[in-house]
Amino acid sequence: MLVVLANDIPPAVRGRMKLWFVEPRPNVFVSGIKDAVTNDVVEYLYKHCPPESGLMVFQKTKKTPGYKIRGIGDTKRSLVEISGLQLVQEKEGSF
Q: Helix/strand/coil (H, E, C) string of 17-86?
């Protein structure tokens, strides 16, 4: 499974994303694509999305805790790691 949250993405990338993903809310994409395809999709996003896109990518993995989180650009939240566990934290002053 792959979940992508974005601040804003280019229209061409958004159109391409709709081939693989369901968009339940604006700039929230969810897909059950296979692991082999997942890496290609993430590489595509890294290549075609500018830092202003502010992507946060949640990818299912077979290793504990079962997911990996990656970010592109300035997101509205920050990634922190505590004892090897990746967590999403609200940025200070965004409450």
A: HHHHCEEEECCEEEECCCHHHHHHHHHHHHHHCCHHHCEEEEEECCCCCCEEEEEECCCCEEEEEECCEE
